[in-house]
Specification:
The complex is a heterodimer of chains A (220) and B (1014). Helices cover 35% and strands 27% of the residues of chain A. With 220 residues, chain A is of the alpha/beta class. Chain A has one domain: 3-Layer(aba) Sandwich (Rossmann fold), CATH 3.40.50.300. The two termini of chain A are 24 Å apart. In chain B, a hairpin with a 5-residue loop joins strand 27 and strand 28. Chain B has 26 helices and 33 strands. In chain B, 43% of the residues lie in helices and 21% in strands. Chain B has 1014 residues and is α+β, with helices and mostly antiparallel strands. In chain B, strands 21, 23, 24, 25, 26, 27, 28, 29, 31, 32 and 33 form an 11-stranded mixed sheet that branches. Chain B has a 6-stranded mixed beta barrel with strand order 3-13-18-15-17-16. Chain B has a 5-stranded mixed barrel with strand order 4-8-9-11-10. The relative contact order of chain B is 0.11. Classes of the chains: A alpha/beta (220), B alpha+beta (1014).
Chain lengths: 220, 1014
């Protein structure tokens, strides 16, 4: 069974002045243990597709299935807590929380006790290649690459099998970007995560297991 | 281009533009209206100031109002104590005129009306004197007449001529009383006599009945200021001694005296101020013109005067002890007639002249009249009350200025408050306006700077749009405000008129003495306030916009050196759970942000608590005043004088007792008493009896009362009685004693009556508490038949007599049985018939009472009106004038009620302001953290948890500030003026605002999550 699947998904942004069909019947499936890249020009619908997969909304038509269950039929908050993890281009770390606390946050949302979450956070921070000293550092004290690793550790802490990354290397230099990609690739290939990366980076697109291209809201 | 783009880009923000346009329009309208109302109130108050005059009468009260003509030493002492400098130094006093009135003689004036005790004084020539006529005399065995108490002896004679007499008819027969000056008229002779014509109707019983027409009684009396014999044999006109001619001239001057009333401003003389007298021709004299005067109509008529005329009068000297004992001085003065006064019998022969205070001695109780500035009249009266000696009363007569102006004062105060709030609102809205329309456009500024746009053009871009919106809104607001202005002002005028109609006269209140002018004003309020208001708003907007533009430009400028990044302190924590954990972490690491809320909270808590405490204090003081204040009432004369010969019927007292809320009704009636051993030796004749009667009439009184509060002695000071063991004031209500009436009627065995005596009287007569002594009481029976009744008194109490006469206080039963007042059944000793007769005929001289509770004041007023009691100056069904001494109470409660009403408005406004402030602060705090908010939601945090995270943070911070605020205020005031509920209310309001702001921020569309920036 696919980790996540889109079936004829359509999504329309409606505003006061216009309606924009961001996705026009997208169907695709994402399997565990693989790294996917969703590519396309600006406005092609990449971020909308990622947002629907992240459970921020439900499609206007069609469905997003997670392990066979449509997101329209389940509690989206719970879905976001337990089924998908998202890594953002600008890391989105809580500025007042230390690196470890940022990692602990989604765990605590799931009801893990803070003490347990703290230990697990330490493990995850090590796992993403950050030194122990980084745990008690605040985001403002970390470099961009380090912040993105913390963001990945936070995603790992959610213990989902789907990792969605929105331009994860967009704000990083090439070396840091490569390192981050390696981490994500390892998570997919070694730990069985389904990693979906939205990116403009053609080089990155060449290194993933499968690339999907969106054009005007449709897969090409 | 820049202007066009600037305007367009702002106008395209429709919602924001519309919101701020509306706010600016609204605030402009509010500002203009409040400014107009303020000017309107000022204008009305100025008009009132011109239309009304305020004066205060300074009157000596004493035990009784001294008669207008009485030389009262205590009143004179009080007047002497009151120096001109002291009175004039009181703020608000513009002029001070003493109540001394002098006299003058005007050639050609013949007084018809008014007080004239020497009207009977005459110098006459009589002839053809008859032999003595004995009336009611016995004849002894020798055929000689024997005079008894009822006898009178007189001669009949012919009134040949009157050298001076007001009421003698020449060539008529008169009865001649030789008097006690040694005159023994001989039959057939003619005499020139000095004496007095007696009032036949009034003295018939004393000197015999003379029903014959044309006959008058002339009694020979001594000269007023000469020891020479007041009689001389008359041979011809040339033989009349000079002393008779001088006396005749003096009597003429005395009887035709003109009362000269000096004043600084005739309009401020009580009679004119209260419209008791008005001008029929001419005008009031200019206060700055000495000698200008208005005169009574009889004087103007007799002297043939018209406004503009000059006339002279000769000053008369007044004797210290007798106002009407006048003598010529030979000094003449010239007066300029300005106006003539309407006809008034009791104000005939008067001249009100602009002059310094008269040198004449003071008679009566009016020490003087103070002219006051209207706006500070009440304060001036308070200061004068503190200045004047004891027993002197200061009464304000403001013609209703206070009540006319008071609503406008309130409206003005509200207008000022609204203006202040509007100004603050305008400043806040314009600040926010400038921030949003200019400050928040820093990105656009950066782009423009990066494209090399000159600063002037950038300013043009932003300022054109912002100022167009602001300017247009201000102009529209100004136009609407100007259009609404007449409507609002009319409504205010109507509301004030309605309020005045309700409170213009407060029945029975001592605050409503005197006339109340009903004037209406139509002041013109200029339109100009609309222009500076609108211009000011635009200029302020311009200033804020320039400020934010400068800040935006500075933020776009790259700074040299290393940039500083604020890094929170702390290490990874695993304490706490859920939303609270996040809230606590945010508080700990929030830095300055975590200080803002508690600090604001502290300041607001202190403010709210302080205001709440003050409000509570007002409320407590008002409750306390309502609970503990004791309001007295009394029956007075129709002109409001506390006591001036009242004759209060039993039925009126009963009606008063029936008024619910009226209690402790105390009444009194006095009879003149004397000790037999003190009585002078009067001759047994008619003149002796008359003199005795006069002597008795000035003796102190034995006052029968049911409470000492009814005694005039204790009107102004609490009774301080030393009681004989076992006795107290309750003896006054004891009904076991026999009324004086029954003592005489049934010759009941006199029993000792307990009495409270003055210490001076006791010392004078060698009495001590517990002693019994006898005195005589003149009892005027209900059919006015005088009876002298012996009474045995038992001294059971003593008081220190401060002034007046040595009155004795005895139980009310001596005058009237208590059942008369309570409506109970007739006592067996009196009998039903006699009881009914007493009910109809008995009266009381004083009556005081107390309200059961100050809360009952308005209800009692209404019940008194229902019963039909008269108020001062307002006759009603029961012609008994009731006066409630409620001025101090009303002044206090009205001021407290005003404060409380203002406090209510203020507390509502403050509550709303705090909700708004809570919202704004929380909104600012949470809106800047939208990304955190979105992140939490993105991670699947439940709405409740996200809400709790932010709400708890704000709640803890505000609670901390609130608690510290409470402690600070508690420490400052030791808990005295705080109101814990106010702090709780503040917290609730603040958290309400916080909750609303968090819920508002929380509405971020999650699909925008990935694009949310701080």
């Amino acid at each position: 069974m696919s980790a996540i699947e889109l079936r004829d998904v359509k999504y329309v942004y409606r505003s006061q002045y216009q309606s924009v069909e961001a996705l026009r019947g997208v169907s695709c499936a994402f399997e565990p243990g693989r790294v996917y890249a969703v590519m396309g020009r600006s406005g092609s619908g990449k971020t909308t597709m990622l947002s629907l997969m992240a459970g921020l909304d439900v499609p206007t038509e069609g469905s997003v299935l997670c392990e066979g269950v449509s997101t329209a039929d389940i509690d989206l908050e719970r879905y976001r807590r337990e089924r998908v993890a998202v890594i953002y281009q600008d890391f989105r770390l809580f500025p007042l929380l230390t690196a470890a606390e940022n990692v602990m946050y989604p765990m605590e949302l799931r009801g893990v006790k803070p003490a347990t979450a703290k230990k697990r956070a330490a493990e995850l921070i090590s796992k993403v290649g950050l030194p122990d000293t980084a745990r008690d550092r605040f985001p403002a004290m970390l470099s961009g690459g380090e912040q993105q690793r913390v963001a990945i550790a936070r995603a790992l802490g959610m213990e989902t099998k789907v990792l969605l990354a929105d331009e994860p290397t967009g704000n990083l230099d090439s070396e840091n970007g490569a390192n981050i990609f390696r981490v994500l690739q390892a998570l997919a290939h070694e730990d069985g995560y389904c990693v979906v990366i939205v990116t403009h980076d053609e080089e990155l697109g060449k290194r993933v297991d499968e690339t999907l291209r969106l054009h005007d809201g449709m897969l090409v | 281009m820049f202007i066009r783009n600037g305007i367009k880009s702002n106008l395209r923000e429709r919602g924001r533009t519309a919101l701020f346009s509306l706010l600016i329009v609204f605030l402009t309208v509010a500002m203009i209206l409040s400014l107009s109302v303020l000017l309107y109130c000022n204008s009305v108050m100025r008009a009132c100031d011109a239309a009304y005059r305020s004066i205060a009468l300074i009157e000596y009260m004493g035990v009784d109002y001294p008669d207008e003509d009485e030389p009262d030493p205590a009143a004179r002492a009080a007047a002497a104590e009151l120096t001109d400098e002291a009175v004039l130094s009181v703020p608000g006093v513009t002029a001070w005129t003493r109540g001394n009135v002098s006299a003058a003689a005007a050639e050609g004036y013949d007084r018809y009306y008014g007080a004239s005790p020497y009207a009977g004084r005459s110098v006459v020539v009589v002839s053809r004197v008859s032999s003595p006529v004995y009336q009611y005399a016995d004849v002894d065995e020798n055929g000689e007449y024997v005079l008894t108490e009822r006898s009178s002896v007189y001669n009949i004679c012919f009134l040949k001529s009157a050298i001076y007499s007001r009421n003698a008819r020449e060539e008529t027969l008169i009865d001649l009383l030789a008097g006690d000056v040694g005159f023994e008229p001989e039959q057939g002779k003619s005499y020139v006599l000095n004496g007095e014509f007696l009032d036949v109707s009034g003295s018939a019983m004393r000197v015999g009945a003379y029903p014959m027409n044309g006959l008058k009684i002339f009694r020979v009396e001594s000269f007023l200021d000469s020891d020479e014999a007041p009689f001389a044999e008359y041979t011809d006109a040339d033989s009349i001694p000079e002393v008779f001619l001088e006396a005749a001239d003096a009597y003429r001057a005395m009887n035709n005296y003109v009362r000269v009333i000096p004043c600084r401003d005739v309009s401020d003389v009580y009679l004119f101020h209260q419209n008791e007298l008005q001008l029929t021709s001419g005008a009031m004299p200019d206060p700055g013109t000495p000698g200008a005067c208005v005169v009574s109509s009889d004087l103007a008529s007799d002297l043939g005067l018209a406004p503009g005329d000059e006339f002279t009068m000769e000053d008369l000297n007044t004797s210290e002890n007798d106002r009407y004992d006048l003598s010529r001085t030979g000094v003449t003065r010239t007066y300029t007639l300005s106006g003539v006064v309407s006809e008034s019998y009791d104000r005939s022969g008067c001249v009100w002249v602009i002059a310094d205070n008269a040198d004449a001695p003071l008679f009566g109780y009016l020490l003087g009249t103070v002219s006051l500035r209207n706006e500070s009249a009440e304060e001036a009266v308070e200061a004068l009350e503190a200045l004047v000696p004891q027993q002197v009363r200061v009464t304000l007569y403001d013609q209703g200025y206070g009540s006319a102006v008071q609503p406008f004062r309130e409206v003005k105060k509200t207008a000022v408050n609204v203006l202040i709030v509007c100004s603050a609102g305008v400043a806040a809205v314009l600040l926010l306006f400038a921030f949003l329309f200019v400050g928040r456009q820093s990105d656009t500024v950066k782009i423009m700077v990066s494209l090399g746009t000159p600063a002037r053009k950038t300013a043009l871009w932003f300022l054109s749009g912002a100022l167009l919106i602001c300017g247009a809104s201000a102009v529209i607001g100004a136009a609407i405000g100007a259009a609404l202005r007449p409507v609002v002002l009319r409504k205010i005028a109507e509301a004030v008129a309605a309020a005045r109609a309700g409170d213009g006269f407060i029945w029975y209140s001592e605050t409503s003495l005197g006339v109340v002018k009903q004037t209406s004003f139509d002041p013109q309020v200029p339109l100009w306030p609309a222009i500076p208001a609108a211009v000011g708003i635009v200029l302020l907007a311009l200033a804020f916009c320039l400020l934010f533009l400068r800040l935006a430009r500075r933020s776009g400028t790259r700074r040299r050196g290393r940039s500083r990044v604020r890094v929170p302190h702390g290490e990874t924590s695993s304490r706490g759970r859920g939303g609270l954990r996040f809230a606590l972490i945010s508080i700990r690491r929030g830095g300055l942000r975590s200080l803002v809320v508690p600090l604001v909270s502290l300041v607001l808590t202190v403010t709210v608590l302080f205001l709440g405490g003050v409000y509570q204090k007002w409320q407590n003081e008002l409750d306390d005043a309502l609970e503990t204040s004791r309001i007295d009432g009394m029956v007075v004369s129709l002109n409001g004088r506390y006591y001036s010969g009242l004759s209060l019927s039993v039925s009126a007292v009963r009606s008063l007792l029936e008024v619910e809320g009226v209690e402790d009704v105390a009444v009194s009636f006095g009879y003149h008493y004397w000790l037999p051993e003190d009585e002078p030796d009067f001759n047994p004749g008619a003149t002796g009896r008359e003199r005795r009667r006069d002597w008795i009439s000035i003796q102190p009184e034995m006052v029968a009362l049911n409470s000492l509060t009814a005694a005039k002695e204790f009107y102004y000071s609490d009774p301080d009685i030393t009681w004989l063991d076992g006795w107290d004031e309750s003896m006054l209500a004891d009904t076991r004693y026999t009324p004086l009436l029954l003592r005489s009627t049934y010759n009941a065995e006199p029993k000792c009556i307990p009495a409270v005596l003055s210490t001076a009287f006791m010392e004078e007569h060698g009495l001590a508490l517990g002693d019994v002594f006898s005195c005589m009481v003149l009892y005027e029976s209900i059919d006015n038949y005088p009876m002298e009744i012996p009474v045995n008194l038992y001294a059971v109490g003593s008081y220190v007599q401060r002034e007046g006469r040595a009155n004795i206080y005895v139980p009310l039963i001596c005058h009237a049985p208590a059942e008369l007042l309570t409506g109970g059944e007739a006592p067996a000793s009196i009998g039903e018939k006699q009881f009914e007769r007493l009910s109809a005929m008995l009266t009381f001289r004083t009556c005081r009472f107390r309200l059961s509770s100050a809360r009952e004041l308005d209800a009692v007023r209404e019940r008194l009106r229902e019963q039909g009691f008269s108020a001062v100056g307002r006759m009603s069904a029961i012609r008994t004038t009731v006066l409630l001494r409620d001025a101090a109470f009303l002044k206090f409660t009205e001021s407290m009620e005003r404060n409380i009403a203002m406090g209510k408005v203020l507390s509502t406004a403050i509550s709303l302001m705090i909700v708004l402030l809570g919202f704004i602060i929380s909104w600012l705090m949470t809106f800047s953290r939208r990304r955190e908010f979105a992140l939490m939601r993105g991670f699947g945090a439940r709405k409740g948890r996200v809400f709790a995270s932010f709400f708890l943070e704000q709640a803890i911070l505000s609670l901390a500030g609130c608690l510290v605020g409470c402690l600070v205020l508690f420490w400052l005031y030791a808990g005295g003026a705080t109101q814990p509920l106010a702090a709780a209310a503040y917290l609730v309001c603040y958290l309400l605002g916080t909750a609303v702001s968090i819920l508002t921020v929380g509405k971020t569309d999650l699909m925008e999550l990935l694009t949310v920036r701080d």
